[in-house]
Every structure is written in C-alpha cells, then in structure tokens.
Write the structure tokens for this entry.
Amino acid sequence: MMPFSRISVFLLCCLLSGCAMLSDKHKMEAYGRTIDSYETAMRISDFNVACQYMDPDVLSHEDCMQRYENVKIAGYNVNAAKVAEDKQKVDLKVELSYFLLDRYVVNKIKFEQSWQYEEKSKAWLLKTVPPDFK
C-alpha cells in the first residue's frame, strides 16, 4: 500500500507542476500576441489600438490618445526585455523615433515600459505612461 501512495503523490506533483508550466506557456504566448499587436500599432501610429493596451488604472484611453496627439512614429524598437520569474511581468527597454506633425524633425527617445499580466482579465496591460513628446 505504501508504494501506491508514494506513486500517487508523485503523479499528483507532476500533474500540478505540469499545469503551472502550461499556464506560464499560455501567459507568454499571450504576451507574444499582445506585444506583436502593440508594436504594429505603434509602428503605423494607430494610437487607438496602442492605447487599448494601457491599464486604465494608470492612464485612461482618452488621456493616452491625447499624449499621442500631433505625433507620428517613425520607429519602435525593443532593445532589451526582462521577464519576471513568475512570468507575470515583462520590462522592456525601448527606443522610439518620432516626429511632431507640425515640425517634421525626427527625434529619438529611450524609455522603459512595464507590462503586467492581469489574472482577472487574462490580459497583458501596459503599466507605463507614454513618454512626453517634445
């Protein structure tokens, strides 16, 4: 009887850890889809889509849209990414090339973005306010 209970415990542990690994894999796949969509939106200056990823507790959609008023993105590049061990957060180092529509002078800005996985909504949200465009 003892070997059977040990095997049962072992199998239960394997099952639980396997579920956790699948959950992490699912989160990171969702992150990949999210960041691909966000990067595309930024590169084509579709700020309505880009602002949908902003955590509304950090910045409302309307306020996000105002940040990008008079801005055209010329380039969006992720230079580095750091994924938290629990796969709940990703910090990015980003370089953004842009110009103001009334000036046509390309500027570059480097900044950090923080993405957080929200269990309740099962979605990745941007927790960092867009930079000031000057």
User: Anything to note?
Assistant: The two ends are 73 Å apart (CA to CA). The chain is about 40% helix and 30% strand. The longest helix spans residues 2-43.
